[in-house]
C-alpha cells in the first residue's frame, strides 16, 4: 500500500483502490505504484482476482495535460515513462475487474481497459477525448479499444471525442454489467469471486491464451502514439485545446 493506493483482501479477492482527489488524474508515480501493487499480488500465493476501484466521483479523469505540475507540464518527457507503466499493467497475470463509478476519460479509459471486465454505475462515462485537445490518443488505446468494441465504434469514439454512457457501453461490449452506484463494489467483487472460485493455474493459463501478446502490442502501439503526440504537441491547435479545457469551452481550431 502507498498513500494513494489501498489494498483489502476478502479470501482470494483483493480490492485495490486508488485515490488522487479531486479527479484521480494519472501520474507516472501512481501508475508505477499501481503496477508494483498488482505485481506483488501476482506473486503472493493468495490473490486469484483483483477489483480495481477508485475513490471519489470520477473513476479517472486521465492525464492532466493542463496544470504545470501535471503530467504534461514538462512537455512530452513525462509521457513515455507513463507508457512504460502501462505496459507493466497489461503484463499482470491476475484477472482484474474494474469498478467504474464515474468518468473514465483519456488515460483513465486506458486504465479501465487494463481490466478484463468493467462493472459500471449508470453515472459512468467513457471518453477518448484526445481530439478535443488537439492531441493523439495514447495509453495503447488505439490498440485496446478497437480490440474490445470493434474498429467502427472505436473510430466513433476517437474521432468525435464523445462521452459514452454506461448503458451504451454495455451494448457495445465496453461494459460487462451496469448496476446502481450503491451496488457497484459488491457487484464487482461478486464477479471477481466467480473467477477466484476456479482453479487458479487454469484461469491464468486460459487468460494468457486469450490475451495473446497484448502487452507487446501495447508497447508497439504506445511507441507510435508517443511519436504522433510529440508532433501534435507543437501545434497551435494543441495550445488552443489546452486553453479551451481551462476555459471550459469548445476549441477554436485552425488546423495548424
What does it look like?
The protein is of the alpha/beta class and 256 residues long. It has one domain (1-181, 199-256): Alpha-Beta Complex (2-enoyl-CoA Hydratase, Chain A, domain 1). 46% of the residues lie in helices and 15% in strands. The protein contains 10 helices and 9 strands. It has helices at residues 28-43, 79-90, 107-112, 141-149, 151-160, 166-172, 184-196, 200-211, 214-233, 236-247, and strands at residues 5-10, 13-18, 49-54, 96-100, 103-105, 117-120, 125-127, 163-165, 177-178. A 6-stranded mixed sheet has the order 1-2-3-4-6-9, with helices on both faces. Strands 5-7-8 form a 3-stranded mixed sheet. The N and C termini lie far apart (45 Å).
* Uncertain runs: none
Radius of gyration: 18 Å
Write out the CATH superfamily name.
Answer: 2-enoyl-CoA Hydratase, Chain A, domain 1
Mean pLDDT: 95
Number of helices: 10
Q: Kindly, what is the distance between the CA atoms of the first and last residues, rounded to a whole number of angstroms?
A: 45 Å
Number of strands: 9
Helix-strand makeup class: alpha/beta
Quick recap:
The chain is an alpha/beta fold and 256 residues long. The protein is built from ten helices and nine strands. The protein has one domain: Alpha-Beta Complex (2-enoyl-CoA Hydratase, Chain A, domain 1).
Topology record:
Elements (H helix, E strand, L loop, with lengths): L4 E6 L2 E6 L9 H16 L5 E6 L24 H12 L5 E5 L2 E3 L1 H6 L4 E4 L4 E3 L13 H9 L1 H10 L2 E3 H7 L4 E2 L5 H13 L3 H12 L2 H20 L2 H12 L9
Parallel strand pairs: 2-3, 3-4, 4-6, 5-7, 6-9
Antiparallel strand pairs: 1-2, 7-8
Helix pairs in contact: 1-2, 2-9, 4-5, 4-9
Amino acid at each position: 500500500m502507498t498513500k494513494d493506493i489501498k489494498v483489502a483482501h476478502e479470501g482470494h479477492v483483493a480490492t485495490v483502490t486508488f485515490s488522487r482527489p479531486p479527479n484521480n488524474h494519472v501520474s507516472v508515480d501512481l501508475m508505477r505504484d499501481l503496477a508494483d501493487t498488482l505485481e506483488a499480488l501476482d506473486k503472493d500465493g493468495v490473490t486469484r482476482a483483483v477489483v480495481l476501484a477508485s475513490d471519489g466521483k470520477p473513476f479517472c479523469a486521465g492525464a492532466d495535460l493542463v496544470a504545470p505540475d501535471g503530467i504534461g507540464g514538462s512537455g512530452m518527457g513525462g509521457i513515455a515513462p507513463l507508457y512504460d507503466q502501462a505496459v507493466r499493467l497489461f503484463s499482470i497475470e491476475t484477472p482484474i475487474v474494474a469498478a467504474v463509478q464515474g468518468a473514465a476519460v483519456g488515460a483513465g479509459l486506458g486504465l479501465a481497459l487494463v481490466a478484463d471486465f468493467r462493472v459500471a454505475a449508470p453515472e459512468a462515462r467513457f471518453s477518448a477525448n484526445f481530439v478535443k485537445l488537439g492531441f493523439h490518443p495514447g495509453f495503447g488505446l488505439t490498440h485496446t479499444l478497437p480490440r474490445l468494441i470493434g474498429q467502427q465504434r472505436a473510430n466513433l469514439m476517437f474521432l468525435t471525442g464523445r462521452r459514452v454512457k454506461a448503458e451504451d457501453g454495455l451494448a457495445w461490449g465496453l461494459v460487462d454489467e451496469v448496476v446502481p452506484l450503491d451496488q457497484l463494489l459488491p457487484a464487482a467483487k461478486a464477479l471477481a469471486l466467480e473467477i477466484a472460485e476456479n482453479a487458479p493455474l487454469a484461469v491464468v493459463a486460459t487468460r494468457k491464451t486469450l490475451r495473446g501478446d497484448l502487452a507487446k502490442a501495447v508497447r508497439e502501439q504506445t511507441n507510435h502514439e508517443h511519436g504522433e503526440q510529440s508532433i501534435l504537441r507543437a501545434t497551435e491547435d494543441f495550445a488552443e485545446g489546452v486553453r479551451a479545457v481551462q476555459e471550459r469551452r469548445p476549441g477554436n481550431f485552425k488546423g495548424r
